[in-house]
Give the backbone structure.
Amino acid sequence: MNKNKDFYIIDTYLTKEIKLSNSIFISHLEYADNFEDIKYFISNTSELYKDATHNCWAYITGINGNNMHSSDDGEPAGTAGKPILNTLQKYNLTNVVAIVTRYYGGTKLGVRGLIDAYSKITEDAILSTQLKKLVEKQTYKITIAYDFFDILKHKIKDFNSELLNVEYSDKIKINISVEKKFSLEFEYFIKSNNYIFE
């Protein structure tokens, strides 16, 4: 995958259902940025739909979408897991796990039909929400004087930053997250005002 392109995430559980040639396809998409959450979602969803014919899945994780895997769960090789994965990649998604549950309706769809069905139901779910751009953040701890706090609060929007925690004593201790691409500029701003990082 191209490391210079933007990646996106979903921030809510997504599900869609379609019926094709008497088979029912249900997609389930969830945010997940680690293998334990992915494993739990796949296991839990498969258990909830254990009466289904297939529970096929795919996932992508990593800031550059570089960790991925898929499973056809008994469907002909390459007709389920890979189309789900390809659809996630089409929208530059990462930190996402997708499962498509199929209840077989008695009519075979063929290789092309299966690929189209698994792709479509995954895409339907993705298109039902507003994707969010994945922003890599760096967290800083700094101690500043009270008279600098208002200046900093006014400036943080320039660094796509967020105040995570503020402690007041003789000085102000701040935890702040900064979009990584602005980190050098932010560090220069702090140091040029004679403040240092903890």
In short: The chain has a mean pLDDT of 92. Helices lie at 35-48, 81-90, 110-126, 146-155, 183-192. The beta strands are 8-9, 14-20, 23-31, 54-61, 67-71, 96-103, 132-133, 137-144, 162-168, 172-179. Residues 56 and 72 are 5 Å apart (CA to CA).
